[in-house]
Automatic annotation (TrEMBL), chain A:
<keyword id="KW-0479">Metal-binding</keyword>
<dbReference type="Pfam" id="PF14697">
    <property type="entry name" value="Fer4_21"/>
</dbReference>
<feature type="domain" description="4Fe-4S ferredoxin-type">
    <location>
        <begin position="3"/>
        <end position="32"/>
    </location>
</feature>
<dbReference type="InterPro" id="IPR017896">
    <property type="entry name" value="4Fe4S_Fe-S-bd"/>
</dbReference>
<dbReference type="GO" id="GO:0016491">
    <property type="term" value="F:oxidoreductase activity"/>
</dbReference>
<dbReference type="GO" id="GO:0046872">
    <property type="term" value="F:metal ion binding"/>
</dbReference>
<keyword id="KW-0411">Iron-sulfur</keyword>
<feature type="domain" description="4Fe-4S ferredoxin-type">
    <location>
        <begin position="33"/>
        <end position="61"/>
    </location>
</feature>
<protein>
    <submittedName>
        <fullName>4Fe-4S dicluster domain-containing protein</fullName>
    </submittedName>
</protein>
TrEMBL record, chain B:
<keyword id="KW-0560">Oxidoreductase</keyword>
<keyword id="KW-0285">Flavoprotein</keyword>
<feature type="binding site">
    <location>
        <position position="45"/>
    </location>
    <ligand>
        <name>FAD</name>
    </ligand>
</feature>
<dbReference type="Pfam" id="PF22578">
    <property type="entry name" value="GGR_cat"/>
</dbReference>
<dbReference type="InterPro" id="IPR023590">
    <property type="entry name" value="DGGGPL_reductase"/>
</dbReference>
<feature type="domain" description="Digeranylgeranylglycerophospholipid reductase catalytic">
    <location>
        <begin position="176"/>
        <end position="259"/>
    </location>
</feature>
<feature type="binding site">
    <location>
        <position position="46"/>
    </location>
    <ligand>
        <name>FAD</name>
    </ligand>
</feature>
<dbReference type="InterPro" id="IPR011777">
    <property type="entry name" value="Geranylgeranyl_Rdtase_fam"/>
</dbReference>
<keyword id="KW-1208">Phospholipid metabolism</keyword>
Length: 62, 397
């Protein structure tokens, strides 16, 4: 299942937990920006689990 | 802009500045960059550091980054049993990381290193199939930093190691998802001269809640839980505060972070790229503290970078990998085994373990005198019948 990871920018602290647990470097955190690269995402949702504040959701896409 | 250095260090947390300072002192041309506009902030840390580390790693005890001296620790089981270890002398301190990190960078700069805040690494420079440096950006301006050695000290979200081809993927179970308030604690009894750790499967799955006092009424109150838990660290901390009637109405800081507690990088060096600290997952997997490990890694890595550069043989960098894995790395692997068993203990078993140990002389156990554990066990033979407990003891001793 292809998913798109969405971030709630109001909740995100750019702590990098999601980056560490991503097997495919589909997420990076820059100094002021959270970035997602959908073509690299394998839909494991590890990032959603690891987020300390629940700022990420996985939305299923076709 | 094009810059040339002997060593470029990406990340100015703990490992980065110690390593930069050590190499600058040896006379190397070092540049340390960090994506933060203000080094040390925001922090992702409980800020506790053992007192011995100051002398061991040659760090002055500057009052500007020491909030409070700590004399011991209390550990609480879910059923309310307690172990308290208290020393006559200072055992550790609660730091102010946003000052500490900046001062560590200052010591590096004073030793001769260049430091650039608000400068983010965006890739590696490759020339003729070799890694020749780091591409970076400062306020949108591209920089090319050429260096013989590149140090990845870029934290849990490290990208530099991955760029070099080292797989630093951390399985979510090997991450502690952490959330912390610096807050005023009212209507809740705690001794502000020791740290307090609360265990329990409902309190903090796999991890613990901590109170690290910065003042008599002000503390870092945080939690770490297994990173593959469907609930969030924030959920569990809020729950614990509520159950203990601690009002969250005087919150001075919110800190969020992921702590690597396993998944140690086997490969710490690839070509001329050296990985240290959280980026290399060099953290104590039992308590989640990584400052002392980062200092140790930086010390070993700087020694081998010095040798590799002075003897003009980059193969010598691998001496860091070997020395780490012969010493500190082995120790962390043993601690990981203990954690892997202890994380499976039920609340009843946690109660039993802490009950047994509270009957022992905790200070002597902390000092490595495990005869106390056996004395306590003889008084509580039931514990010995539990196979998990036996395995735990076997690994721990």
């Amino acid at each position: 299942m292809k998913v798109k990871i969405l971030v709630d920018r109001e909740k995100c602290y750019l702590c990098g937990s999601c980056v560490a647990v991503c097997p495919k470097e589909a997420i990076i955190t820059e100094s002021e920006e959270w970035k997602f690269f959908p073509e690299r995402c394998i839909g494991c949702k590890f990032c959603v689990l690891a987020c300390p504040v629940g700022a990420l959701v996985a939305k299923e896409v076709e | 802009m094009e810059l040339h250095y002997d060593v470029v260090v990406v990340g100015a947390g703990i490992a980065g500045p110690i390593l930069s300072r050590n190499l600058a002192k040896k006379g190397y041309k070092v540049l340390m960059i960090d994506k933060k506009a203000e080094l040390g902030s925001p922090k992702r840390c409980g800020e506790g550091l053992g007192i011995a580390n100051f002398k061991k790693y040659d760090i002055p005890m500057d009052k500007r980054f020491i909030n409070r001296e700590i004399y011991g620790a209390a550990i609480y089981s879910p059923g309310g049993y307690k172990i308290e270890i208290r020393y006559d002398r200072v055992a550790g301190v609660i730091l102010e990381r946003k000052v500490f990190d900046k001062m560590l960078a200052y010591y590096a700069a004073r030793a001769g290193a260049d430091v650039m805040a608000k400068t983010e690494a965006v890739g590696l420079i490759r020339r003729e199939g070799r890694i020749a440096g780091v591409k970076a950006r400062h306020e949108g301006e591209p920089l090319e930093i050429f260096a013989d050695v590149i140090v990845a000290a870029d934290g849990v979200e490290s990208r530099v190691a991955r760029w070099a081809g080292i797989n630093s993927f951390l399985p979510p179970h090997e991450l502690d998802s952490a959330y912390e308030y610096e807050m005023i604690i009212e209507n809740f009894e705690f001794d502000p001269d020791i740290i307090h750790l609360y265990f329990g499967n409902e309190v903090a799955p796999r991890g613990y809640v901590w109170i690290f006092p910065k003042d008599e009424d002000r503390a870092n109150v945080g939690i770490g839980i297994n990173g593959d838990n469907p609930k969030t660290a924030k959920y569990y901390l809020e729950k614990w505060l509520k159950e203990n009637n601690i009002k969250g109405t005087k919150i001075l800081e919110v800190n969020v972070g992921g702590v690597p507690v396993g998944g140690f990088l086997k490969e710490l060096v690839r070509d001329n790229v050296v990985v240290v600290g959280d980026a290399a997952r060099q953290v104590n997997p039992m308590h989640g503290g990584g400052m002392a490990e980062a200092m140790e890694a930086a010390t070993i890595a700087s020694k081998w970078i010095d040798r590799a550069l002075s003897e003009e043989n980059l193969e010598l960098l691998k001496g860091y990998t070997d020395e780490w894995w012969a010493g500190e790395g082995q120790k962390l692997l043993r601690i990981l085994k203990v954690r892997q068993i202890s994380e499976k203990l039920s609340d009843d078993e946690l109660d039993a373990a802490i009950q047994v140990l509270s009957g022992a002389d905790a200070e002597r156990i902390a000092a490595g005198d495990y005869r106390e554990v056996f004395k306590a066990l003889i008084k509580n033979p039931k514990i010995l019948l539990k196979p998990k407990m036996l395995r735990l003891l076997k690994e721990a001793l």
